[in-house]
Amino acid sequence: MSIKSGFVALIGRPNAGKSTLLNALLDTKVAIVSNKPQTTRNVIRGIYTDDQAQIIFLDTPGIHKPKHQLGRSMNKESLTSITDVDLVYYIVDASVSFGPGEQFVLDQIKRSNMPAFLLLNKIDQLTKEKLIETLLQWQQRHEFKEIIPISAYKKDNLEKLMEVTKSYMKDTLQYYPADQISDYPTEFLVSEIIREKVLQTTEQEIPHSVAVMVEKMERDASGLWIDAVIFVERDSQKGIVIGKGGLLLKEVIQRATKDLKELLASNVHLDIFVRVEKDWRNRKRQLVSLGYEHKD
């Protein structure tokens, strides 16, 4: 059956609201969200399908100045995704002043020559006058196909965004079944939900030094049994993640179990262990095993 289909890359700086937008467009949780920069580490594919179109959204890691091999791999994933899509959503936090980091992302979009929408996000934090001023400034920086102010968090103007996006899609075959919302294995989704809960319950340097791997997942009559490992880089971080008397880890397990029950529509039995892997963000073998880098 012929349908309008295409791929759309979500590009922007850390905390621009890319993952919040993806979840809002799909009206379900596909990408994890926190207020910590660089929450998204992989390209997350979310699939939107209705009677008119199927759009495959690629939520990419925030483009930033990397301090580790992990950061360099994340930037590479984001910039590569621009070159092989039908449309780019360039998502900007409109409440933050334009700076060198934003200029770098804009330069990459210009260099790609891909059709791009500028999405000015978080407009709920701006006065009408400030929004008009910001719009005028951005109009002078690049000739975007469309400039659309939105609030991903409040879902403002998203219907218009989807309507305009569909007009840029091509008549072709449907890529995925209509009821599929992501093409990642369940293990990946589970590990991301657990990592989200760690991000939401810890502070300081912990969020950036944490990775999660699902070691075992089995189903029986009572539900899904999951064993997962949280990796940190130092013994002191292990103590923080576990918490006094194991309280913080218990909270992570409780929060993750609740979300996983809803996401997987199943009873979930979750066990999590914390393990120290020194300097894993700079070790290629670890990055490959955790899915953050591909084998050469």
Structural class, by secondary structure, is: alpha/beta
Order of helices and strands: EHEEHEHEHEHEHEEHHEH
pLDDT < 50 stretches: none
Give the distance, in angstroms, between the N- and C-terminal Cα atoms.
Answer: 38 Å
**SS elements, strand count:** 10
What is the CATH fold-level name of the largest domain?
Rossmann fold
Q: Please tell me the overall pLDDT.
A: 87
Task: Write up this protein.
The chain is of the alpha/beta class and 296 residues long. The chain has two domains: 2-173, P-loop containing nucleotide triphosphate hydrolases (Rossmann fold, 3-Layer(aba) Sandwich), CATH 3.40.50.300; 186-289, 2-Layer Sandwich (GMP Synthetase, Chain A, domain 3). Helices cover 36% and strands 25% of the residues. The chain contains nine helices and ten strands. It has helices at residues 18-26, 69-82, 100-112, 128-139, 158-167, 186-201, 235-242, 247-264, 284-289, and strands spanning 2-12, 44-49, 53-59, 87-93, 116-121, 146-149, 170-173, 211-220, 223-232, 268-276. Strands 1, 2, 3, 4, 5, 6 and 7 form a seven-stranded mixed β-sheet that branches. It has a three-stranded mixed β-sheet with strand order 8-9-10. α6 runs antiparallel to α8. The longest helix has 18 residues, at 247-264. The radius of gyration is 20 Å and the shape is globular.
